[in-house]
Every structure is written in structure tokens, then in C-alpha cells.
Amino acid sequence: HPAARCCWARAMAEEAVAGPDALGVGEVQELVRRKDELEAQIKACYAVLEGQKGVGMSEPLVDAEGYPRADVDVYQVRAARHNIICLQNDHKALMLQVEKALHQLHAREKEKQAKDEAEAQAEAMNQNPTLPQPFARVNAVTPGSPASISGLQVDDEIIEFGSVDTHNFQTLQNIATVVQHSEGKPLSVTVIRGGKKLHLGLTPKHWAGKGLLGCNILPLQR
């Protein structure tokens, strides 16, 4: 019965509006299913009007003399109009609930994504602890030199060179002093290469080229 369907639809809308604040995907799908049912009922009511000489929601149901029209089922038209009004109100309320639920789902998804990203970053930091700030960079290495033999490469960033590190480095003279006092003795050199810390053993000594290293080192701005 049309009136019964209207009451049933309104009850569904009220139930949806009074539902919990946080709805899951399944509940949202149920709201959408109810919305589709309401729209189907509204369409069916309009079909009833169309079947009654195509009367709409506002055409008069009395003739020129004020008597009920004989060419249409006045009761059926009035019932269909009443049901359409009820169903459209229910549909509006349900659409507000659907919109609210979708916003909640979207917000929860963004919150979950942000939490996952934060956890991933925390895990990455645990796996890759923060590296010391380099104080110099290698910008040239001569083949066959002590630096080349030690494995030093261009663009290596130096964080330790013997006793010189990020905390006590002032000028390149610090490195020069260490090299002069370590001729023929292995030096521990730590560099950052490709985002990873690498330890090298470098022994300053005379070779075919100039100096004791055979590389060029530039200080980094700090």
C-alpha cells in the first residue's frame, strides 16, 4: 500500500539519521541501498500520476464546476502525491546521512593514512639512524694514489678523518696536520656514500703524484 510504503521509508530514514556517529563501509552501503529503494518508490509514484492522464503534482483535481474530475482516479492521485512528498522528505534526510557518513569514512581513511605514514617514517628512522653532519667532500681522486687505493671516491662526504670529526673540524689545515703526522701510518676515514656510512683505511705516503693523498677535499658550508 502506498501509505504503508511511505511510513516504512520514513522509519528507515529516521533510523539512519539516528544511527551511530561512526559508520563503517557496510553501514554506508546499506544507506545507499535504502536511498536506491526510496528513489525507486518515488519513481513508481510518479508513474501512477503519469497513468492518470499525465497529471503532475499541482494540476487541479476538480472540474470547472468544483466537482471531482471524472477522468482520473482522484483518490489514487492524491495518495500518490502524498507519498511523493513523504518519500522526497525521507530521501533528503537519508542523503544528508549518506553525505555525513562518506565524510566520516574519508576523514578516517586520511587519519589512517597519516598514521601509517608516521609509523613508516618512524620505522625508517629506526632502521636508518640519523647520520652525522659531514664537514668536507671529496671532489677529485687521482688513479693510483693512496686515496684511490683506499677506496675513496669523488662525492664521498667526510664525517671522520683520523682524529678530525664534525665537532672539532675548523679548516682544511686540520686534515693537513693529521696527514703530515700520519705519513706511512693507516688513518681511519669515515665517509657518507649513497646515504650510508662507510669506513675506509687510508695510509698517507709519497707516490708518483703530488702530496701524500692524491685527492682534493673541499670544506662544506655549515
TrEMBL record:
It comes from Chelydra serpentina (Snapping turtle). One of its GO terms (biological process) is proteasome regulatory particle assembly. SMART domains: PDZ (SM00228). Residues 92-195 form the PDZ domain. The keyword Cytoplasm does not apply. GO terms for cellular component: cytoplasm; nucleus; proteasome complex. Keywords: Chaperone, Proteasome. Acts as a chaperone during the assembly of the 26S proteasome, specifically of the base subcomplex of the PA700/19S regulatory complex (RC). During the base subcomplex assembly is part of an intermediate PSMD9:PSMC6:PSMC3 module, also known as modulator trimer complex; PSMD9 is released during the further base assembly process. Belongs to the proteasome subunit p27 family. Interacts with PSMC3. Part of a transient complex (modulator) containing PSMD9, PSMC6 and PSMC3 formed during the assembly of the 26S proteasome. InterPro entries: Nas2_N, PDZ, PDZ_6, PDZ_sf, PSMD9. The lineage of its organism: Eukaryota, Metazoa, Chordata, Craniata, Vertebrata. This is 26S proteasome non-ATPase regulatory subunit 9.
